[in-house]
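Q: Protein A?
A:
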Amino acid sequence: MCDQDHFDEDKKEFEASGLVTRRQFGVLLGAGVAMMLPKVVNAVAVTESEVTIMTPDGTADAYFVHPATGTAPGVLVWPDIFGLRPSFRQMGKRLAESGYSVLVVNPFYRVKKAPTADQGSATPVPSLMPLAQALNETTQMTDAKAFIAWLDRQASVAKNKKVGTQGYCMGGPIAFRTAAAVPGRVGAVASFHGGGLVNDMPNSPHLLAAKTKAQLLIAIAANDDMRSPNEKNVLKETFEKAKLPAEIEVYTGAAHGWCPPDSQVYNELQAEKAWARLLALYGKALA
């Protein structure tokens, strides 16, 4: 799903709507500036820090934010192909203000510390493909184990509650694999405009997720659904057969990449809907 043609098509559609101009995109995104997210009602005070985490392959850089007092369920966030950047720190902080201990990771730490996209979400996708292609099921699952083990060593993480994980674009299938890597610990999985959730291989991300006991939220971009109209049906049938609670929805009018606030196709209305569904998922599965 992370190909330049689709991002360019989506940007043109968004500009045609009159919501934002190409020049505005250049000013906002070229500087790595995200649109401001709505404030959290009754937000809790949080503590935030840049952290490093040892993995079997080296030292990963990440952003950790959690309620300033007490313990809270842990959440592992996998960014899209543009990586760990201000918009994902903003999203992580917002989730922490809602009552979660949140770790947002740099999945490309083996090659480069964040920021890994020099122009933020305005970075040409082809220049980032080598970073994404260097990752595979093995690296993703070993990373998932290391990151969740790190979360469980933090005093702010509730050990008596399940962990959640969420992924955007390429992070969607990684979130599925995270649940498979630590099936006894992960209680909730969310994918937002995830690319590559379903394939014909026996280790397809959706089949791995179906072997867990996690509850799922799968938010699909409308134009992704147009390109792969049967994927939602495969997901629904697979999780129904596995008897896993799964909310699977195509978000009307939302283009691939609509959730991060610095996205070239950010759709605040649909992003807020997806955010509300995420909180509902975590409210049930991580309580």
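Q: Protein B?
A:
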Amino acid sequence: MIAPLLVLAALIGLWELITAAGWVDPLLVPPPLDVVKSLWVDRSILAPDLWTTTKEVLVGLAVALVVGAGLAVAMHLWRPVERTLRPLVIGSQAVPMLVLAPLVVLVLGFGLAPKVLIVALVCFFPVTINVYDGLRDTDPDARKLLRALDATPWQTLKLLEAPSALPAAFTGAKVAAAVAVVGAVFGELAGSDAGLGHLLVNASFQLATATSFAATLLLFLEAIALYALFAALERRVVSWAPRTAR
């Protein structure tokens, strides 16, 4: 934890040095202190937009977790579903979200629904693939033992495969949590009247770069907080999993 903070402090110090030396135009890159001041001065603008983006992220991420895990289980249990949907799941990542987001907003409008859908589309792939791989990557000897005991596929899933897949599932959830914020911003940039993405567009047009950097900082912190939340939940739920000492 100390090393990332030291690196961050060094980057902020370098940023302050560059702006103080006048090597960049403050209208383009404001000093760090101006960004911190903007967090307080513009709090009446930043706070509502932060809540809007957070709501989009949380709902979209929840949808991705439910749909992604359900799809992974379906592909694992039924081979026809796996043969039909797995190529589509993988191919979905070839569609640029910058192209898809405006189409989603055009169809669903400027409300919450298109942002939730875009966040879910961004997040569901890491969830689905990690859960699917986790379900398949189980102890073959334990699988043979349950088969010898005439366990049904659902019993095998409950007793062996689902617990075994938890570490991989949390890996997918952590990745999804980190990119969910990006999905919300994509949706807001495509068309929105609120949210940090919308604020970034307006602040850029007004050359309010300190506000833009403050909004970006909030997005950065939100992504870290969501990742840390799932990491803490993983340590609590998957306490039995071996961990490599670092």
